[in-house]
Amino acid sequence: MAKIKHNNFIDTVDEVISGAKKEGVLHLYAEGRNLTGRTLQIDGQKMFHFGTTGYLGLEQDIRLKEAAIGAIQNYGTQFPLSKSYISHPLYYELESKIEQMYGIPPIITKNSTLGHLAVIPTVVRDEDGVILDHQVHWSVQNACQLLKIRGIPVEMIRHSNLDMLEDKIKYLTTRCNKIWYMADGVYSMFGDFAPISDLMELCKKYPQLHLYFDDVHGMSWRGKNGTGYVLDILKNLPDNVLLFGTLSKTFGASGATLLCTDNRLREKIKNFGGPLTFSAQLEPASVAAAIASADIHLSPEITSLQYDLSEKIEYFKSLLEKTALPMIDLNNSPVFFLGTAMPLTAYKMVQRLFNEGFYVNPAIYPAVPIKNTGIRITLSRHNQKQEIKGLVEAMEYHFPKALEESGNSINKVRKAFGIVETIPQIETHKKKNFPSDEMKKWVPDDLRQTITFSEENVELKTILALQYETTIDKINKQNWNELLGKQSTFDWEGLQFMENAFKNSDNPENNWDFHYYVITDKKGTPLVATFFTFGLWKDDMLASESISLQLEEKRKQNPLYLTSKVLGMGSLFTEGNHCYINKTHPLAEQAIMLLLEQVETLYHHLKADMLVLRDFEEDEQLNNIFHNQGFLKINMPETCIIQNTKWDSIEEFSASLSPRSRKHFQKEILPFEQAFDIIIKDKLTKEESEHGYKLYQNVKNNNHAINTFTYPIEVFQKMESRPQWEFILLYLKNQEKEEITNPLVGILFCYKNTAHTYVPSLIGMDYSYAKEFQLYRQLLFQAIKRARCLNLNKIDFGVSATFEKRKLGATVIPKVAYIQARDNFSMELMGTIQNEERTRSGN
What we know:
Elements (H helix, E strand, L loop, with lengths): L8 H14 L16 E4 L2 E5 L12 H14 L15 H12 L3 E4 L2 H12 L5 E5 L4 H12 L4 E4 L4 H12 L5 E6 L11 H10 L3 E6 L14 H6 L6 E6 L9 E4 L3 H9 L3 H4 L5 H14 L3 H20 L6 E2 L6 E7 L1 H14 L1 E2 L1 E3 L9 E6 L6 H21 L4 H8 L41 H5 E6 L7 H8 L7 H11 L10 E9 L4 E13 L6 H11 L7 E7 L9 E3 L6 H19 L3 E7 L3 H9 L3 E11 L7 H6 L3 H10 L7 E6 L4 H17 L10 H7 L5 E8 L11 E10 L3 E9 L1 H4 L4 H15 L4 E6 L2 H5 L4 E11 L3 H17 L2
Parallel strand pairs: 2-12, 4-5, 4-6, 6-7, 7-8, 18-20, 25-26
Antiparallel strand pairs: 1-2, 3-9, 8-9, 10-11, 11-14, 13-14, 15-16, 16-17, 17-18, 17-19, 20-27, 21-26, 21-27, 22-23, 23-24, 24-25
Cofactor: pyridoxal 5'-phosphate
Keywords: Transferase
InterPro entries: Acyl_CoA_acyltransferase, Aminotransferase_I/II_large, AON_synthase_class-II, PyrdxlP-dep_Trfase, PyrdxlP-dep_Trfase_major, PyrdxlP-dep_Trfase_small
C-alpha cells in the first residue's frame, strides 16, 4: 500500500486552541484573594461571571466551606489509602445521604471521568454492544475505548438522531446481548436535553436496549432532592438505566456518583471497578462539603434554590426573546448559546463583552463544529437581575458590531445553524440608554460609541467584478490557462475532459457538478480564479488505511456508507494549487472574502455536508483569513513534483540525483528496464483498454491511503478522444514461462498540460510481477523519460509514495486544506475507529 502523511487530529485542535489563546479568550487566570461566584477578575478587570457550571452557587455556601475546613482540621488534607481497604470516617455518612436523595445506594467516585472508567468496562460485557451519541461527554467516549480491545462493538449516531439510533439497534440486535445507548441528560454546549421519553419508548420496543446517562449538567437545579433532569423525567430509575450524577459543579463539592438498581452489579463495580480499586479516594474536605450539600438537597431549601434559579432563567429568556439574537435551543436549562458561526466573530464578541464587564465562554472546535462556533453563557443564582439585564443589552448592542468587525452577517449565522424562521433585523443601535445607569461604571468610554452596521458587505460588489459559470466553455481559455494552467489536469482542456467524463454521469458516486469563479478588479485585472466540484466523497478519504479497510467491509453491503455531499475546491481527479490568488494586489484579501461569501451561499443552496478548500501551501495570511471565517485547517497528503527535466542522457539524469538515490536508481530501476517492452500510445485496442482498466482496479483496490471511489471504465475510454492524453504500457518480455507470453503488467494514464507539464495521473499494475521486477519504480522512471522526450519542463507526480518519488529526484511539498462541516459526527467517528486501531496495536 502507498504510504501518505495523514492529518493528525491533535495538531488540528492545537491550532484552533492556540488561535483562541492569541485572541485572549482561552487559558486565562482568575485573580484576587477571594471569589464570590458573582464576579471574576482577569488581567485586573472585574467582570460579572456568566461562565460557571455551579448553577445553584453552592460552592460559595458558608455551610459547605465550614464543613470542609472542619474536615481538614479533624482528618487532614487527604486519606491516602484505597477505598478497597478502608474509607475514611466521613464516607459512610455521605453514602447514606446520597442514598436518601435517590432511594438507591450509590457508588461514589473521585470524579465523573474516573467514574466512567470504573463503571463502563465493568457493566458492559463481552457479548454486549454500545451506541454513543456523538455529543456525549468526552469522558464517556474515552472510557468506551477500553471496550474495543475486548472486541465489543462501539457504534456512534448523530446527536439525538432517533432514526439512526433505531437502525443501529436493529443492526446489533442479533449480534449482542445487551445494547447500551450512552448520552448526556443535559448537553453542556447548547443546553439541550436528551429525549428521555422517546428513549424509554424505544426500550419498550427493543428489550435489549439499556440506557447510560451522564447527567452532571442536570444535577441539583432540577428534580426532587436535586437528583437531576433524567430522574425528574423518569421519576423512578428503571432497571435498564444507569445514571451518573455529580458531587461537583452544581452540587458544590467534588466527586461523582453512580446510581443503578441492580444490587449485584453495584457490588461488582465496587469490588473491581478499575479506578475505584486503585485510585485515591475523595479528600476529607470534599466529602464533608458533599455531606453539607446533601443536607441542603434533602431539605425543603433545595426547592427554593431551584425556584430562584428558574426565575432568573425565565427572566433571561424573556429578555432574549425580545431580541433578534440567534440563540440556539432556548429552553429552561441554565445553559445558553449565542451562535456566531465564525470563530473570529466569537472572539470579537467575547472581547467586547469582557470590556463591558461580562465573563462568558467561547465555544469552539472540537466542542462544537467549527462553523457552529458561538458563546456559551451560563446562569447561576449568583447572577442578579440587573447584570442579567445588562448582559442582554450588551449582547444586543455589540453583536452587530462583532459581526461587522469580523466580516460576518446575521444571515450567515442563521444559515450555519439552520435557523430558517423570519425574525426582525438586528438594530444598529438602541434608542434606549446603554449601558444602564447601574452598569456604566463597568463600561469604558471608548466602547460606548455606535458604528454603522451593514447586513451584507455590498462594498465588495462595487470594487470587484465576479464571473461565475457552471462550465469551462464559458471561461476565456487563454485567461484560464495563464492563471491555472501548467499543473495537474485542470488546464482549460483538462476541465473540458473532466466535465465530459463526470458531468451527468449515471454513476452517483462519480457524478459531479462544476462551478467556476473568476474575480477581477474593475480594470479587469485577475485577483482570484478557481473551480469547485460538488459530489460524493467518502468520509474516510484521508483517514488511515486501517480505518478505510474497516469501512470498506461495511460498504460491501451499503456502497454509500459514511459518504458526504461535498463542495470541494478542485476535484477528486486533480491535485495541486486549484486557486490562483494575485497576492500582490491591494484588493487580494477583499477578493478572497468575496469568493468565500459566494461559495458559502452555494454551499447552503446545494445543502452540502462539507465545504473544502484545497490544496494550499502553508500561508499565515490565508490561514488567519480562513480560520477566522470558520474553516478548520487539516494537513493534506504531500505532493511531489519534478521541476528540472533538462538532461540529455541517462548518465546525466543519474548524476542529478543524490548519491544515495543514484545508488538506488542504478541498482533497483535501471537494470530492470530491459525486462520490459515499453510502448507509448494515444489510442488503445479494446483488449488493452479492458486489461489496463483491470490493472487500474488492482492498484485502486490495493491502496486505501487516499480512499476515493473507483472510476468507471467510461472515464478511461473518454481519454482516448482527447489529444492531451496518452498511455505508457509496460509489457513483460518473454521470461520463458510457457503459460503466458508478453503480458501487459503496467500502465500509466498520462496527461500533457499546455506544452509544459507531464501528469502521470493514474496507474495500473499486475502485482504478480511488481516486486520481482520493481514495476512501480519502473513506471515512475518511464514517466520521467517520456516528459524529457516531449520537452516538458515539469512533472506533477501527485500524492502518495513520496519516498519512492523523492529517490527519483522529486521535490515533496506539504499541503493543507480548510474545511467546514455541518457537524463533527464523521470526524469523531473516524477518531473512535483510529483510537481502536491504536489500542489494538499497542501504539
